[in-house]
Amino acid sequence: MGCRFILYHGFTRASKTDNSNSLMLSFYINLSCRGCGEQIYDIMKRTLLFLMSVIMVLSAYAQKSTSIKVFEYPDYLCPNPYTGQPIYGGNTLAISYSEKKNSYGMEFRYGYVKYSLSLSYKGMDNGRYVYTGFEIGNMAEAIVMTSTKLSRFLDNYGQMQSETFEKDKLIELHISGSGSLSVYPIKDTPERRKRIEEKVAKQEVENAARNKLEELYPYGVQYLQDSLKQQVVKEFFNNAGEVKSFNLQPYSFHTYIAVIDTNKQVTVIQKDEVVLNAELQNEQLHGKIEYEPSSTSGKTAKAVNSKVFFSMTFHPELNIKEHRGKVVYDKHGFSYFENAKVSYAAPNQFIPIEDMKKAIETSITKKGQYSLYWETLDNRLVYLSYKRMGTGILKVHEPVEAYSIYK
Questions:
Q1: Could you tell me the CA-to-CA distances from 222 to 228, 250, 256, 312 in Å, in that order?
Q2: Which of 13-22, 166-175, 273-282, 396-405 has the lowest average pLDDT?
Q3: Residue 90 near residue 108, CB atoms below 8 Å
């Protein structure tokens, strides 16, 4: 007598209405037994029950290990630090729960700072639920207290209105080194979600404009300051020491309005009361402002139409430096020294700038020692004179002017 059996198996869902991701292993047995004993049937039965129990345990474990519930609120309220009245605090507030770790997570923004908290239930304190943990970014200690279980906030448990605070919606946060914050989640609705999306989009545009201003503003100011200084120096040398375009009186200044574009091209719009570019002035006055720092930031600038308009003051001055030294003319040629004491040690000697060297070595024809006096501006020669040093008490020589831009 022979025995034959066929074992069919496959994965099926528990039911069409079951929302879980768990799978059940279904077995189908086609057992044709001709003279099989009860012993074989018992072996098959025990094997089947064992396999089914193993699959059920593994399925339950997998479902539990991946069970994380998250709810994201479109916004939250917090007290105005000055008036205590409700104000919107940030873009979103996300609360999560991990069944595997038996812990909660909170993620939100306050201003430009993002916080991520990991929390575990600690117990009750004066009728409030206490959760302790840490801020993930800097590992600072964090404490959260609520009048309603934190788990309830996983089901859209937020305020419907924003005029007053609802005490049962309070989430009180204490983060070491960052201070305390009272948070009241706003209930998620399609209307609020749309408003938040518009707010986020607007904030992204503002952030991009702010970053652009932070990059271009200091470059524009420094570039214009350097350019104006060079203009003063250029006019000084080109006009025999006379500067007419700038007021060089002590404590005087000029006010400029300028613009810098994304190519870092700087254009002056206005100097003092004189408008130099009417088209750009109109854009500066009437263009759509993408970002403008607060008046307390110290930045007199604003981002308009992908450009940065700014104003600044310029204090024109001529920083003319005076120098004294000595030149020795002997059979070896000319040797220059930084002070009246002649020393051929390297630190005491120097190489004069080309204009100075040319003027001295063209003018001095007699060997001897000469004291030098010269002035420079921006490392360029302004004035030079020398005087022959006498060898006796009664020997006096008059200074000789060797170079001057003033004539």
A1: 10, 22, 13, 10
A2: 13-22
A3: yes
Q: What is the domain partition of the chain in residue ranges? A: 3-65, 69-188, 211-314, 321-404
Residues pairing with 134 in the sheet: 118, 141
User: Look-up: residue for tokens 């008059």?
Assistant: 398
Architecture of domain 69-188: Beta Barrel (2.40)
Lowest-confidence pick of 36-40, 127-131, 171-175: 36-40
Tokens 């006498």: give the residue.
Answer: 390
Residues ≥6 apart with Cβ < 8 Å to 134: 117, 118, 140, 141, 142
Q: What pLDDT was estimated at residue 37?
A: 60
Q: Report the percent of the chain where pLDDT is more than 90.
A: 66
Task: Note whether 2 and 9 are within 8 A (CB).
Answer: no
pLDDT of 191 over the 90 cut: no
Query: With contact defined as beta carbons under 8 Å apart, do 360 and 386 qualify?
Result: yes
Report the Cα 26 to chain-centroid distance in Å: 58
pTM above 0.70, yes or no: no
Given a contact cutoff of 8 angstroms between Cβ atoms, the answer to whether 136 and 176 are in contact is no
Give the E-state strand segments of 99-170 in sequence order.
Answer: 103-110, 113-125, 128-135, 140-146
Give the mean model confidence (pLDDT) for residues 274-300. Answer: 91
Per residue, the 3-state secondary structure of 298-351, as one string, reads: CCCEEEECCEEEEEEEECCCCCCEEEEEEEEEECCEEEEECCCCCCCCHHHECC
Question: How would you list the strands of the sheet with 321-330, edge to edge?
Answer: 333-337, 321-330, 368-377, 380-388, 400-404
Q: Which amino acid, one-letter code, is at 13?
A: R
CB 148 within 8 Å of CB 129 = yes
